[in-house]
Amino acid sequence: MIDYEKAVDRCLGWGGGAGAGGWRSLLLLVALVASTAALYAFFSSTLRVSAWFLVPPPSNSSPEEFVLLPSPPPTHRHTRPPLGRHPASTPPPTEVPVSTASPSLIAPSPSPAEGAYDPKTPPLVPDGPGFTPSPGFLPVSTVTPPSVAPLPPPRVGDDAMTDLQLIHAKKEIAGAPVVLHDPDLYAPLFRNVSVFKKSYKMMERILKVYIYEDGPKPLCHTPHLDGIYASEGWFMKLMEENTRFVVKDPNKAHLFYLPYSSRQLRTHLYVAGSRSMQPLSIFLRDYVNSISAKYPFWNRTRGADHFLVACHDWATYTTNLHEDLRKNTIKVVCNADVSEGVFVRGKDVSLAETYVRTPNSPRKAIGGRPASRRSILAFFAGQMHGRVRPILLRYWRGRDRDMRIYEVLPDEIAAKMSYIEHMKSSKFCICPMGYEVNSPRIVEAIYYDCVPVIIANNFVLPFEEVLDWGAFSVVVAEKDIPKLKQILLGISGRRYVRMQTNVRRLRKHFLWNDKPVKYDLFHMILHSIWYNRLNHYSL
Ligand SMILES: *[C@@H]1O[C@H](CO)[C@@H](O)[C@H](O)[C@H]1NC(C)=O
Ligand SMILES: *[C@@H]1O[C@H](CO)[C@@H](O)[C@H](O)[C@H]1NC(C)=O
Fold first, then answer.
1. What's the pLDDT tens digit per position in 120-158?
2. Which residue from 180, 195, 198 has its CB within 8 A of the most atoms of ligand 1, so it is best to mutate?
3. Of 88, 100, 96, the residue nearest 113 (C-alpha)
4. Around Cβ 137, how many Cβ atoms within 10 Å?
5. CB contact set of 2 (below 8 Å; sequence gap of 6+)
6. Nearest ligand to the C-alpha of residue 174?
7. Looking at the domain 371-510, which fold is it?
């Protein structure tokens, strides 16, 4: 039996145990974790139904014996690490005491301290079975198209209208006329610009979204616009203000938005030191149950035309107490990890994580040097979260002048050149996963015209159903970290210039605007939800 608690502490470097000498035991641990995971995967594979819309198998975990998903067989059950302990270099996040008052009476709390670059919540589960790396250097444009099974046959009567509209849209998109030139869309960024353009146009013409007015504040309807979870807040704000897509009559809607904030749930419902997400999951279960009892819409599709938008790392796990919410609902989340059995490619949507430092001007300081004036080959600085960064540091810190790989940027270096200035002056910005697969660095690199190098196995990249990530980023498998420099030097100067130009052209698709404009981040996210909704229908 593994002493998981100790193991996880070591893995995360908590308690100061994992110095250089800890590597041998770390590797041993990794092997143990991997074999445990393999056993678990074997036992649970029959439960991971890819046809997620089907009637779910009976649940074998009652709320009393709540375990985080995926729940391994009893003998291999994970013990969660204590949340109160952190690496010595990170100040613990401010814990907000949970009020016993009903959620609607809780006053909004001040936003958590964001002094550190990356004030992430440490995970409640140990790092996943991450040492089973995917095959080599894998350009994302080779990902297989989603296989999503269709919903039950179109409904009858009034309900049928929205189905028929979506089927019509899907037909139109399949027959999209070939676009040779479009002033607003740069074709090399897209897998198929004709399809994207047509799909976007059909979305503008057809899509109607209903937003539930239910839900207590501040857990619902209260957008936060700053920090690393800002994406969910910006989406909520812009969706609730929207007049083009939002419809008051739910009978006309193709999609239903559950307007809650995963960050607010974490702030107000997590019991400090409890190491349990259960209160958050219970809130969501009850919230959905109240909506499904009050309105007919949830039961029609068992939640498959409903969506949530959530950027906190825990968001995917906290859907687990409601079968339909977990399996059917379109989860638009930053933690888009297909290895955990929760996020489903082609159904769920990878939400771009944007670190907004100044909500009043989210585009402050964007831009960077041209390719010819980028003197640094590769740059990374950040906290040692998760499984990938320690390996990156081990191979590249202080080894090579071209590879500027740091832990937190040392003061004497930061005094000469800031973090952002480094991003603006580097050819490649390394974006290794943190505790979870996502990282705000990817969008940051895009803002500063730096070609992102993404290291996170099993991560579904934002908008991958329409964008060709191979055109403007490099995806490196975790096992190839030792070859990182070789991989980057293997990219010719000409190809690099092309990629960097593409990053600049891509930027507008990743920008928040106070008043959304065509093809900006808000619309790209909405488009992905729309596009995945169409996957429900076969022609
Ligand atoms: C893009 O999709 C359209 C419509 O399906 C198709 O006619 C066209 O050949 C595709 N273009 C490319 C480059 O694959
Ligand atoms: C939807 O289904 C649930 C569970 O079967 C049921 O309790 C609820 O009353 C139904 N809602 C409506 C509006 O009929």
1. 776 664 333 332 223 222 333 333 444 454 455 555 555
2. 195
3. 96
4. 12
5. 29, 32, 33, 36
6. 1
7. Rossmann fold (3.40.50)
